[in-house]
Amino acid sequence: MARILVIEDEQDLGTLLEYNLKADGHEAEVVRTGAAGIGRLSGFKPDLVLLDLMLPDIAGSEVARLIREGESRRVPIIMVTARSEETDRVRGLELGADDYVTKPFSVKELLLRVKAVLRRQGEAAPVDGRLLSAGDIVLDTERHEVKARGDAVVLTALEFRLLKTFLERPGRVQTRETLLSDVWGIDADITTRTVDTHIKRLREKLGPAGDIIETIRGVGYKLVG
Fold first, then answer.
1. The last residue of a domain, from among 90, 123, 156
2. What is the CATH number of the domain that holds 117?
3. Which of 21, 36, 113, 188 is deepest in the core (most CB within 10 A)?
């Protein structure tokens, strides 16, 4: 069972999501404004946030930014929105969303995506106590910490898993489809642009040390150095 915070201003949809999430075994709470969602993070301590992009008070993109910059920065976010254009989807991922669902959607599909994101979150937890390193990057799987050139780097759970995958496979080319399957836990039913967006964010966070993730044009990426 997971605690899921739903930030959704449409009352009927919020009620529908709350009912189905609870029926699926989760603890769910619905708030109707971005401010209320931010305010519930510390008290409710969600394992996942379902976030509508179009809210009456604060834009969902701003809510996502505040989550990623606060104490709940590692909580996965699934954005739920009526905006279906690829640019909106990419923008949502750049803001740190772990997945993006467009309205209208089937509740069954959403529950499957929730399950997939929660599964990835659990798999990203430290299990073996090993240090993985390459170049100026050190990843501590026990403490779930990353350092680049000695400085701590704050990553989302998905970014951590993505970097860990590269560190475990040095020199091996990873296609976008392979990364979608192994890191996201899905087949390539989401545009491979998703991978590019997260690689870009990961490199930015790692700074100059991120140059060891090399783009193999037309194929994918690999860890060098």
1. 123
2. 3.40.50.2300
3. 21
Identify whether residues 50 and 149 lie together within a single domain. no
- Nearest residue to 73 via CA among 57, 95, 43, 101: 95
Q: Is the pLDDT of residue 11 over 90?
A: yes
Name which of 94, 96, 35 is nearest 64 in CA terms.
96
Residues in CB range of 106: below 8 A, 6 or more apart: none
Find all residues with CB under 8 Å of 12, minimum gap 6, and list them: none
Query: 109-162, pLDDT tens digit by residue?
Result: 899 889 888 887 765 544 445 789 998 999 998 888 899 988 999 988 889 989
Residue 133 to residues 82, 107, 126, 168: CA-CA distances in angstroms?
Answer: 41, 41, 15, 9
Question: 144 in the Ramachandran plot: left (φ > 0), alpha (ψ -120 to 50) or beta?
Answer: left
